[in-house]
Amino acid sequence: MKIEYYKEYSNFLGRDMEFKVYGHAGKPLIAVPCQGGRFYEFEDMRMLDVYAPYIEDGRVQVFTIDSLDYETLVTDGDCRARIERHENWIKYIIEEAVPRFRQINFEANGWEIKFAVTGLSLGALHAATLYFRFPDIFDGLMCLSGLYTNEYFFGDYHDDLTYMNSPQQFIRNMPDDHPYLEKYRSGRMIFCVGQGAWEIETLESTREFAKVLAEKSVGAWFDFWGGDVKHDWDWWFVQASYFLPKLI
User: Fold this and answer.
1) Sign of the alpha-carbon dihedral angle for 85, 87, 89, 91
2) Cα–Cα–Cα angle for 145, 93, 83, rounded to 5 degrees
3) In the chain, N or C terminus with fewer CB closer than 10 Å?
4) Which architecture does CATH list for 3-247?
């Protein structure tokens, strides 16, 4: 398997950001790590083993990135400063990382392909935010054990940026003729959550988000697994193995 490591400066974040690329060709897929995770989580936690057959046969090229969760959502301090930092991370992904990834993927394939994005746990919120805010870039989404509102991290604090980064809120308020809704309908979206240990908040949020999309006539696959299915890597391996070929 072809694996490449990069460390490049981000003007939006004022620091070097690291990422890895797995594969020689295929649909570009951005993998967002779990809460506070790093770009190497995908490999260290052995999720790479699940993706390996699809990477090696050229069906998918995976780009793994860093989060800034411990500076943004999962920290104390001024809420406005935290969400501004988070928005700068979003800008880094969209305006710096994605163009770089697109260049790498174009050189691999010889043509331009829309991205898919996936995330686990808190990474699912980030993946969903990227997908629903930027449907011209993304046409595939796989979220496992996710939250779809950032109210869990900001409580009663609300402003324009918390709203923009909370898909459950901004999609609920979209007018029925919003052009993004048709773009969502042409994409492929998969949401899965267990009903076992440590899935109380994620189960609640996933059910609510399913209602929001249904109210907007946006078709998505919501799969609710059983009471033995925990918020843990052992089950994410199983879920990713099941859903990945259906995504790509």
Assistant:
1) negative
2) 70
3) N
4) 3-Layer(aba) Sandwich (3.40)
Tell me the backbone φ, ψ of residue 238, rounded to 5 degrees.
Answer: -65, -45
* Burial zone of 46 (CB within 10 Å; 0-12 exposed, 13-18 middle, 19+ buried): exposed
> How many C-beta neighbours within 10 Å does residue 158 have?
15
Q: Which of 213, 187, 188, 202 is nearest to 235 (CA)?
A: 202
Whether pTM > 0.85 for this model: the answer is: yes
Find out whether 208 and 174 touch, Cβ atoms under 8 Å. Answer: no
> Which pLDDT tens digit goes with each residue over 94-135?
999 999 999 999 999 999 999 999 999 999 999 999 999 999
163 Cβ contact partners less than 8 Å away, ≥ 6 residues apart: 169, 170
Q: 3-state SS string over the chain?
A: CCEEEEEEEECCCCEEEEEEEECCCCEEEEEECCCCCCCCHHHHCCHHHHHHHHHHCCCEEEEECCCCHHHCCCCCCCHHHHHHHHHHHHHHHHHHHHHHHHHHHHHHHCCCCCEEEEEECHHHHHHHHHHHHCCCCEEEEEEECCCCCCHHHHCCCCCHHHHHCCHHHHHHCCCCCCHHHHHHHCCEEEEEECCCCCCHHHHHHHHHHHHHHHHCCCCCEEEECCCCCCCCHHHHHHHHHHHHHHHC
**Strand bridging mode 221-224 / 188-193:** parallel
Encoded tokens for 67: 């989060």
Contact between 159 and 82 (Cβ < 8 Å) = no
pLDDT beyond 90 at 180: yes
